[in-house]
Design goal:
Oligomer: single chain
Bound molecules: NADPH dihydro-nicotinamide-adenine-dinucleotide phosphate
Strand content: 15-25%
Structural class: alpha/beta
Number of helices: 15
Distance between the termini: 56 Å
Shape: globular
Number of domains: 2
Strand order of the largest sheet: 14-15-16-13-12-18-19
Length: 483
């Protein structure tokens, strides 16, 4: 698999420029320099991609399941054989440490294809018997052409999390990665071509969200949209899909709480809280950004946490000792810095971080920021209510379980939450009351691909993962036979 300086769309099995003939720049956020160019696609490219997908659909939908399984398994194998190239491309595009892209992003992208390739071999539908009279059975048929749109934080990981179940269930796909991280999506096209995926089954249109992305959402022949990204974009997509009754699965923003009770396993909690705060520079929708600590251990937590955060190494994404690479873009760095300034205006104290990092040499123009811990803010301020999506956490003390739950639930989001306690009854009580699609107890980001994944409130609508994804990408049709 080869990254290329001029990235192409992948339409009907061919690598082609945008109809406009135009490209825009793709930056390496660690150097701040342009290193490749992205086709500036529009509705004409999307129309071509949808036509190709419609043409490919009857053949792909009717293909024997085990043949589809083999092709998708081959895609996974090819990603695995090219792990180094994929991981390098992901790190250059996103600024994340190669240590992460090679152990998390790319292995998980392979797993997504393997998981859904094998899942479809075991997928079955329901039957309901009316004794002595009739039998109902439910057909689960693919939808046709579906749209998959994903963000920049876990580029191939989230792109494949949508594409794999859509393809496994017999749909043809028009997909768009984020304009900030196009390269591994382009390379996925190469992998699919090599794996023998028939032309038109997967089409990858690169370009800008409001132009190429919106054209996918708007297209009448796209039957469903699977979207991961910000809440504002999700709201906009829902406005469009609601006009045409398109199915939509929306995985949106978060402002996740960590509830740390005094009886927790302190050492394990500390290790995982550092991870849940600053993995991928805090640019994971599941990262905890509001840390609530029970008062008896608040001071001990603060001292140890800040000490460890100050030790984290920020810099060269390709150094094996780097903990945090670059933020994804200049605009995002400015947004995160803006929130740190706002936190100070709102009365917060920056305990550590808060400043850009000068990484000399090749990386001196890169977007590096020290991991930041802030205390002294109330729960209602903007810093504690709005998604920052960077290496910034706030810490707040609490006294009782009820107070912790109220603080945790006191935002408009409801994606993930983490609870640290050794009291099994409390863990269950709290998990039951948290307004979140995902609750981790004494762990973080321990993922089982069979489980439902998604959020409540403004964190989204619908669920991905396991059977949920297979159901989203199929239409249930009941057939009733009287005998
Ligand atoms: P955006 O919402 O800006 O973009 C997401 C994707 O949508 C990108 O491919 C983008 O293209 C595209 N897009 C933008 N506008 C439109 C439009 N009008 N129609 C169709 N597509 C459009 O999110 P970010 O990329 O900034 O990602 C960060 C956000 O994603 C955070 O809020 C984070 O919480 C959330 N997220 C949620 C997850 C979850 O599972 N709930 C997981 C990971 C992230 P382009 O990049 O070209 O603008």
């Amino acid at each position: 698999m080869r990254p290329e300086k001029y990235i192409k769309n992948y339409i009907n099995g061919a690598f082609v420029p945008a109809e406009s003939g135009e490209y825009f720049d793709n930056y390496n956020p660690a150097t701040g320099q342009v290193y490749s160019h992205i086709p500036d696609s529009d509705e004409r490219d999307v129309a071509k991609a949808v036509e190709a997908a419609k043409k490919a659909f009857p053949g792909w939908a009717k293909m024997a399941t085990d043949k589809r399984f083999r092709i998708l398994m081959r895609v996974a194998d090819i990603i695995e054989q090219n792990l180094e190239a994929f991981a390098r491309a992901e790190s250059i595009d996103s600024g994340k440490p190669m240590a992460m892209s090679s152990t998390v992003d790319i292995p998980r992208s392979q797993s997504n294809f393997r998981f859904f390739a094998t899942a479809i071999m075991h997928f079955s539908s329901e039957s309901h018997h009316i004794a002595g009279e009739a039998i109902n059975f439910t057909l689960r048929q693919p939808l046709g052409v579906v749209g998959c749109i994903s963000p920049w934080n876990l580029p191939l990981y989230l792109f494949s999390w949508k594409i794999a179940p859509a393809l496994a269930t017999g749909n043809c796909v028009v997909a768009k990665p984020s304009e900030l991280t196009p390269m591994t999506a382009f390379m996925l096209g190469q992998a699919c071509a090599e794996a023998g995926l028939p032309p038109g089954v997967l089409n990858i249109v690169q370009g800008l969200g409001p132009k190429a992305g919106q054209a996918i959402v708007d297209h009448d022949d796209v039957k469903a949209i699977s979207f991961t990204g910000g809440t504002a974009t999700g709201r906009r997509i829902l406005q469009t899909t609601s006009q045409t009754f398109k199915k939509a699965s929306l995985e949106l923003g978060g402002k996740n709480p960590n509830l740390i009770f005094a009886d927790c396993d302190f050492d394990q909690m500390m290790v995982d809280t550092i991870r849940s705060s600053f993995s991928n520079n805090g640019q994971i929708c599941l990262c905890g950004s509001r840390l609530y600590i029970q008062r008896p251990i608040y001071d001990k937590f603060k001292e140890e946490f800040v000490k460890r955060v100050q030790f984290l190494k920020v810099g060269d994404p390709f150094s094996s000792v780097t903990d945090l690479g670059a933020l994804v873009s200049k605009a995002h760095m400015e947004k995160v810095m803006g929130y740190i300034a706002l936190a100070e205006v709102e009365g917060g104290t920056v305990l550590c971080g808060g400043k850009p990092v000068d990484v000399p040499g090749e990386y001196e123009q890169g977007y590096f920021l020290r991991p930041t811990v802030i205390e002294g803010l109330n729960n209602e301020c903007r810093t504690n209510q709005e998604e920052i999506f960077g290496p910034v956490v706030t810490i707040q003390p609490f006294d009782t379980e009820e107070e912790a739950i109220a603080l945790a639930n006191g935002v408009k989001y409801g994606l993930a939450s983490t609870v640290w306690t050794q009291d099994i009854s409390r863990a269950n009580r709290v998990a039951e009351q948290l307004q979140a699609g995902i609750v981790w107890v004494n762990c973080w980001m321990l993922r089982d691909l069979r489980t439902p994944f998604g959020g409540v409130k403004e964190s989204g609508m619908g669920r991905e993962g396991g059977l949920e994804a297979l159901r989203f990408f199929t239409e249930p049709k009941n057939v009733c036979i009287k005998y």
